[in-house]
Structure formats: structure tokens, C-alpha cells
């Protein structure tokens, strides 16, 4: 059974590195930051630990866990991942129906 991680003292990058054995690079840091922004740090940490349980380290696998939990109503999202207006304004990127996660290739 997964336990709730300590969100005040545990760094998300450290959790990912310890769980997967992979170093967090700029690209993977961006992915983790985006997931934390959309799903909350506690949920992302739990999803990383869940992925570790099945010996999976893919960012897409972790994202799939988060999406599955959201679809089943197990988590409340902090920000709607389908709300592109704020993201496009913040990043200056455009693209009709362009998902921020679509280009991920693990």
C-alpha cells in the first residue's frame, strides 16, 4: 500500500531519481514540473511510486497513472490539463488543440 509522501521536504526530482534510477535532465524536469502543476505534487509522487512498483520509469506511464486516477475520481486536479489558454499565454506557444503532453517520447 502506498503512503502519502511528505510534500514539504521531499523533492520531486529526488523521488523520481530514487524510484527509477534515472537522472532528471532539463527535459524530464520540465515534464515533472508540468505534471506537478496539473495534478499536484503529492499525486505525482504517488504516481512515481506506483510506476516503480511495476518497474516502469516512463514519463508517459506516470502520466497515464495520473490520468487514470483523475478519470476514476481518485484525485482532484489542481489545474485542468486541457485548459490551453493559460498555458499558451504563459509560454507564447500556439496550436489549435495542441496538447502539452503530445510530443512526449520516452
Write up what this structure looks like.
The protein has 106 residues and is mainly alpha-helical. It has a domain at 13-80: Arc Repressor Mutant, subunit A, CATH 1.10.10. The chain has helices spanning 12-20, 26-39, 41-53, 59-71, 84-91. It is globular, with a radius of gyration of 14 Å. Mean pLDDT is 77; it is low at 6-10 and 94-98.
How is this structure best summarized?
With 106 residues, the protein is mainly alpha-helical.
Please give a handful of descriptors for the protein shown.
106 residues, mainly alpha, Arc Repressor Mutant, subunit A, 5 helices, 54% helix, globular
CATH topology of the domain at 13-80: Arc Repressor Mutant, subunit A
Summarize the helix and strand pattern as letters.
HHHHH
**First and last CA, distance:** 27 Å
CATH architecture of the domain at 13-80: Orthogonal Bundle
Spans of at least 5 consecutive residues with low confidence:
6-10, 94-98
Helical content, roughly?
A: 40-55%
CATH class of the domain at 13-80: Mainly Alpha
Largest sheet: none
SS elements, strand count? 0
Category by helix and strand content: mainly alpha
State Rg.
Answer: 14 Å
Percent strand equals under 5%
Count of helices? Answer: 5
- The rough form would be described as globular
Mean pLDDT: 77
Amino acid at each position: 500500500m502506498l503512503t502519502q509522501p511528505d510534500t514539504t521536504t521531499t523533492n520531486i526530482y529526488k523521488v523520481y531519481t530514487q524510484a527509477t534510477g534515472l537522472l532528471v535532465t532539463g527535459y524530464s524536469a520540465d515534464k515533472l514540473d508540468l505534471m506537478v502543476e496539473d495534478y499536484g505534487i503529492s499525486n505525482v509522487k504517488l504516481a512515481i511510486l506506483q510506476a516503480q512498483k511495476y518497474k516502469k520509469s516512463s514519463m508517459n506511464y506516470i502520466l497515464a497513472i495520473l490520468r487514470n486516477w483523475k478519470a476514476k475520481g481518485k484525485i482532484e486536479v489542481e489545474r485542468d490539463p486541457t485548459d490551453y489558454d493559460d498555458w499558451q499565454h504563459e509560454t507564447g506557444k500556439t496550436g489549435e488543440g495542441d496538447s502539452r503532453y503530445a510530443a512526449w517520447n520516452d
